[in-house]
Amino acid sequence: MSYISPFTITALILAGGQGSRLGGRDKGLMPWQGKPVAARLAELLRPFCDELLISCNRNQSEYGRWADRLVGDAVPDYPGPLAGILAGLRHCRGTHLLVVPCDLPRLESSVLEALLRKALARPQWPCLTRTGGDWQPLVSVLPGSALPELEAFWEQGGRAPLRWLLAQPHSILQLPAKDPRLANANHMADWAAGQGG
C-alpha cells in the first residue's frame, strides 16, 4: 500500500558499505536501542512502501530477514553508495525509489513523510534533503524514469550521488541545520547513545 497516491514506492536501505570508519564492521548490523539499525529502518519504511529492498554486499542471510529482496553492487570492492542506488533503481518495481542510508539511526517517519510530500509536487524530478547548508543526497526520492540518466552517468565514470542529483532538475526538502533526525553515525562514538537497549 502506497503512503501517498499516485506514487507506488519501492524503498531502498543502503547497507553495502565497507564500514572502514567502524573498523570494518557492517554498519547496517550495528545495534541501536536493542536491534540492528537496518531492522529499525525497515520497520520505519514499511508504512511508506510497497516493497523494501536492501543493498548489501555481505551478511545477506541477516539482511534477508528484513527485506523483500536484496540487491548488490554490480562491481566488486565496495564502489560506493551510487552503486547501491543504481542497483535499487534497476530493481525498482514502483514509480519511485525512496532511498535511506543505514547510518541514520535517529531517522523518524516525519522526515520520510515530508520528503515524499515534497517529491509529490514534482514527481518527475529527484528530490533530495538538505540540513541547513549540508546536503544529504542519500535521503532522497528518485523517479524510476531516472534510471537511463543514472546509468549514463555511471558509465561515464560518475560515482558521486550529489553530483548526479544536482546536475538535473530536482526538488529539495530543506530541514534545520544539524537536525538530529539526520545525524550520521559514522564512528563508534556515534553509536554509543543507542547501545543501552
Radius of gyration from the CA trace? 15 Å
Quick one: how many beta strands? 9
Give the N-terminus to C-terminus distance in angstroms: 31 Å
Uncertain regions: pLDDT < 50 for 5+ in a row? none
The helix-and-strand class reads alpha/beta
Shape: globular
Mean pLDDT, to the nearest integer, reads 90
SSE arrangement, N to C: EEEHEHEHEHEEHHEH
- Approximate helicity band: 25-40%
What percentage of the residues does DSSP assign to strands (E)? 15-25%
Report the oligomer: single chain
Looking across the biggest beta sheet, what order are the strands in? 5-4-1-6-8-7-9
- Largest sheet geometry: 7 strands, mixed
Number of helices: 7
What is the fold's blueprint, element by element?
Elements: E1 9-14, E2 31-32, E3 35-36, H1 37-45, E4 51-55, H2 60-63, E5 69-71, H3 81-90, E6 96-101, H4 109-121, E7 127-131, E8 134-143, H5 147-155, H6 161-166, E9 171-175, H7 188-191
Parallel strand pairs: 1-4, 1-6, 4-5, 7-9
Antiparallel strand pairs: 2-3, 6-8, 7-8
Helix pairs in contact: 3-5
